[in-house]
Amino acid sequence: QNVKITDFGFCRMLSSSDERLTTPCGSLHFCAPEVLEAPEESYCGPPADVWSCGIILYGMLRGEHPFDGTTREETAALIREGDFDTYKLHNNEWDMIKNLLTLDPKERTGSGEILKHAYCQKGKSKDLPRVSVSLQMGCEEIDQEIVSRVVQLHANPGEQGKEVIVTSELVEKAMALSHEEMGVVLGDDMNTAEDKTEIEKLLDVRCTYEILLQEKMEGNKLASEELTGKAKIHKSIIWGDCYR
After folding, report:
1. Looking at the domain assignment, is residue 154 inside a domain?
2. This model's pTM is above 0.85
3. Taking every annotated instance into account, which residue ranges of this chain make up the domain Protein kinase (predicted)?
């Protein structure tokens, strides 16, 4: 069966496929070695994404990470070395992952070559049907009950650890901005500290809203402390960990 995996919690719109990036971001176990060298050295996004696909495929076939140290520093060192266990990998699987997890991004296989590889061609099934989905949340889709809860939660300094002035208008502004737009502001060194502080506030608000919406759909009601904790985890998943 076909399976499509997507994760746009943190993404960047590129002007060209060879645009150089300098923001070190992502979950460490999935980061390409060149990403670990940012911001001192720039890197290209597509080859780094190919590496991450190799990590995912390895995990699906082996049930573990190829580079997994006991500390973050050890894991980063293993990624930079690029050596991984090939036990229980068949020939096509091994060759495919070897191409995806090539240390030199210039030598790493491209996305077009991946689909032509023998591993992908074997037992190829029909493509999944294309389905159009809306990528934007319209204002009319915003749950006003949840908006009121977000305002109430952020109005209580004891629940958030610091006083944050949040209005219903600010919540709707947070929901109107995409994660990508927020990421551009936070990742651009040209933006002021005030701009980034405002985006951080909007991100906190949006994460709280999204957790509340999820819990409402599942019929749950979290205590304030549980909600704050889940919102923080949600925020960390969206943006990933930054490594310098």
Report:
1. yes
2. no
3. 1-120
